[in-house]
Design brief:
This protein has about 350 residues and is α/β, with parallel strands linked by helices. The protein contains 13 helices and eleven strands. The structure holds alpha-D-ribofuranose and calcium ion. Alpha-D-ribofuranose binds next to helix 2 and helix 7. One of its GO terms (cellular component) is cytosol.
């Protein structure tokens, strides 16, 4: 889409749709973002959206916890520390390092999957490249390392446990990566289960094919056993899966108005490896951005279904596949019901996204 056409569409969207900030919301929801973080991947963008919501008093961001998935922990650490500093929240939003890898799934079994099943979409997160052996092998953020911010001494899992105990029934976990940290927290401190407010995931592929593997969505595939542990707990759980995020694929010029309005975003965006100006895809898939938008305004979900959910953990072509049942098992279920988002008000989401990402970062 040409820039002028796009700007016209944007203006009409902004004037016809209520901005997200004007939608009635519960006050200041407490949020932990559990993320396989990258500077300007979907996790990084979701964090920027959350940072604006935090500053506007619409959520209270308690912390950013990191889990291995998209990126090795060593790389995430430097990118996440810079991210909180970049938006001026380093004194308010602590960053915690978490699981260094999945509970059971491993690089070795991944090699077997490749040999047995062929490959999926070609993106295997951290496993796509070697783990940094030292800080010297970590790629610095495009605008330099964080200067005033340190990783917290406490582990992500312990932070989650303490935060949930200190704020019973009030904490939403926004799970944007594999479920490893959450599974570990639940196993370490089962008393937190009834105290968790809710978990909103970007995860799963219920009635559509997977992305990383033919049947599995990346976050679930990377640590299927962790996902299975968490999904089976009696917690309010909402999935923003590929079923809905597949509808949010934007053309490459989608970002143009933001890049024009916001030089700081343009700077971090344009340094995506291998391409000075563009991400290396022919379209831009939105995943985690939809999940944070759902947290901020659940009315963006225009169609949801409630089902009993589970994960296939048998090693084979369905490893990591999310399974769902419309009816309870006849003898009663060991599974839990969850809400699955199937459709989104993309016009309103686009207007919100473009407006928010165009704002100065601090
Ligand atoms: O499948 C998409 C999900 O996997 C997103 O959360 C992306 O960031 C990766 O973690
Ligand atoms: Ca993610």
């Amino acid at each position: 889409m040409k820039l002028r056409t796009f700007a016209t569409v944007l203006l009409s969207l902004l004037s016809s749709a209520p901005a997200l900030a004007q939608v009635q919301q519960p006050n200041s929801e407490k949020l932990i973002i559990d993320s396989d973080f990258g500077t300007f991947n979907d996790d990084g963008q979701a964090f920027i959206l959350a940072a604006h919501a935090h500053k506007a008093g619409r959520i209270q961001l308690l912390g950013l916890t990191l889990v291995t998935g998209n990126v090795w922990m060593e790389q995430q650490r430097v990118d996440a520390l810079k991210a909180v500093e970049r938006v001026g929240l380093e004194k308010q939003v602590p960053v915690f390092a978490g699981a260094q890898g999945p509970l059971l799934h491993s690089f070795a079994s991944f090699a077997q999957e490749q040999a047995l099943l062929g490959v999926g979409d070609g993106f295997y997160g951290a496993w796509s490249g070697p783990r940094p052996k030292s800080d010297a092998e970590v790629v610095p953020p495009p605008d330099g390392h964080a200067e005033r911010t340190q990783i917290q001494r406490r582990d992500a899992v312990d932070f989650m446990i303490d935060a949930i105990r200190a704020n019973p029934h009030q904490v939403t976990i926004l799970a944007l990566g594999p479920a490893t940290n959450i599974a570990l927290a639940i196993r370490k401190a089962p008393d937190i289960v009834p105290l968790i407010g809710r978990i909103v995931y970007m995860a799963g592929a219920f009635d559509v094919p997977g992305n990383t593997m033919p049947a599995a969505e990346f976050n679930v595939w990377f640590d299927p056993e962790a996902a299975k542990i968490v999904y089976r707990e009696p917690i309010e759980q909402v999935f923003v899966p590929l079923d809905v995020t597949n509808s949010a694929h934007f053309p490459l010029d989608f970002f143009d108005p933001i890049l024009k309005a916001n030089p700081q975003v343009a700077r971090i965006y344009s340094r995506i490896p291998d391409n000075p100006n563009r991400p290396p895809w022919t379209f831009i898939p939105f995943w985690d951005q939809l999940a944070i938008a759902y947290v901020l305004d659940p009315s963006l979900a225009t169609e949801t279904e409630t089902r009993w959910v589970d994960v296939d953990t048998n090693f084979g072509v369905n490893y990591g596949r999310t399974i769902s049942y419309k009816h309870e098992f006849p003898q009663g279920s060991f599974l839990q019901q969850a809400k699955i988002v199937k459709k989104f008000d993309l016009k309103r989401f686009e207007a919100y996204y473009l407006e928010t990402m165009s704002k100065p970062l601090r």
